[in-house]
Amino acid sequence: MIWEVFRQEEQGGYHTHCGNVHAPDREMAKQFAAIQHGRRKPTNSIWVVPKSEIGELDADEIAFGGSTDKSYRWAPTYKSDVEHAAEVIDSEGQQAEAEKQRGDA
Amino acid sequence: MVGEIESPEELDADERDALEALLQRLADDEYVLAERYTEWQVRAPTLESDLALSNNAQDELGHARLWYDVLEDLGYEEHELVYERDPDEWRHSTLVERPFAEGDWADAIVRHYLYDVAEELRLEALEESSYAKIADRVGKIQSEEGYHREHAENWMERLATGEGHERLQDAVDRLFPHALTLFEPVDEQTEETIVDAGFRTESLEDLAEEWVNTTVPFLDGLGLETPAVERVHFDEYEFEVLDEELPDKRGRDGSHTDAWNDLHDEFTRTYRELGRSEATKIMETAE
Question: CB-CB: which of B51, B147, B151 is closest to A36?
Fold first, then answer.
C-alpha cells in the first residue's frame, strides 16, 4: 500500500508533499516516512495519507480558470526591472536592516 | 554521585580496568551489530525496510564511536580499537556476531528486538553513572534508541502470523541463548568493580531479570516460545540465567563463535592489506 508523505519544516508552515512510502498500515507508514523524509531535512511534522484517499482532478477533465482568454490577469506590461529612485533603494535597505535587527530575516 | 569522576586519574588500577571493560562491552556490541546490519543493505525485503535497517546501522556506529571516544581517556585510539585489536580481545555479546540465516528477515528482526530491549535497559542503568563522560552521553543515545525498539516491535507484531510466525520461532530458538550472553560478566571481579565504582548503577543480574521479564511476556503474547518461559514469573520478577541455557562461547570473556573470526577478518582486511597505521577520518571526533 502506498502512503503519500507531507513534510512540514517548521511549526505553522505548510505540509508540503515530499514523496511516498510503501507500508502495510498507518503506523509503519509513519515510521518509514520519518526515516525516509524526516531524517535529513529540518522537520517539525509529517503527515501520511493513503494514496487511494487522495482525490485528483487534472487539466484533461476540467478547464481550470474557465475557457475564455484571461491573459489580462498576468499584467505583462508592468515593468519590474526598472531602476528605482535613490530614496526608494535607501528605504528598502533600511527596511531590510530593520528586519534583520528584529530577527525576522 | 552522578558524574563525580571527571578523569581516569581519579581511579585506582582495578577501577580503570573495570571502566575499560564496561566501555568495550558497550562499544563493541554497537560496532559489531552495525557491521552485521549493513549486510542487509540493498538486500532487505523492501526499499523502506532497507533504509530503516541502514538507519539503525548508522545510529549504532555513531553510538560505538561515542564509547570508543571515551576509551581514548584511557590512552587508546579509535583505529587501534577497531582495526588493530585481535578478535579475541573484543568483548561484544555473541548475539551481535552471529551471521544471519540466509536471507531471513525474521532473523534480523528478532535480533534487533532482543538487542534493543537490552540496550534500553542498560542505558537507563548508565544515566546516573559516576563517570561524567558516560552520564553525559547517555541522553543523546537514548533519543535514537526509543525509535529502534518501536521499529523492532512493530515488525515482530506484523510477522507473527502464518509462515512469518514459524520463522520468528526459528530465529528465537537460535538467538535467545546468545542474547543471554548480553548479561554475562567479563569476569566476576571486574563486574563487581563496575557496580561498586558506580560506573553502572545496576548489576548484570538485575538487568537480565528486567530484560527477561520484558522480552519473554512479549514473545509469549505473539505465541513465541522461549526456553526460559516456564521460569519467568511474570509478576514476581525473579530470574537467574542458568549455565546450561548459555551457549559455549559467550563473547564477553573473549571467547567467540567462528563466524566472528570471518567477520573480523573481513572488516579489517583493507586496513591490513594497505599496511595502515591510522584510519581516514571523514568526520571530526564525536562530541
Answer: B51
- Matching residue, cell 542474547: B179
User: For residues B273 and B285, which has the higher predicted lDDT (pLDDT)?
Assistant: B273
Share of chain B above pLDDT 90, in %: 82
**pLDDT for B178:** 96
Residue-range domain boundaries for chain B:
8-273
| The dihedral formed by the CA atoms of A12, B139, B108 and B24, expressed in degrees to the nearest 10 | 150
Residue whose C-alpha is closest to residue B244's, from B158, B180, B168 = B180
Q: Which CATH class is domain A2-53?
A: alpha beta
Task: Tell me the C-alpha distance between A90 and B151, whole Å.
Answer: 56
CA of B48 to nearest chain A CA: how many angstroms apart?
Answer: 6
Best CATH choice for the domain B8-273 from the list 1.20.1260.10, 3.30.1360.120, 3.40.50.10490, 3.40.50.410: 1.20.1260.10
Inter-chain CB proximity A28 and B46 less than 8 Å: no
- The predicted complex's ipTM stands at 0.78
Judged against a pLDDT cut of 90, whether residue B138 lies above it is answered with: yes
B143 interfaces chain A, CB cutoff of 8 Å: no
8 Å CB contact between B15 and B5: no
pLDDT tens-digit profile, chain A (105 residues): 999 999 999 999 999 999 999 999 999 999 999 999 998 889 999 999 999 999 999 999 998 888 888 877 887 767 767 788 888 889 988 998 988 888 765
Q: Which residues of B touch A20 (CB under 8 A)?
A: none
The answer to whether the CB of A22 falls within 8 A of the CB of A1 is yes
- Is residue B236's pLDDT more than 80? no
The C-alpha atoms of residue B172 and residue B174 are separated, in whole angstroms, by 5
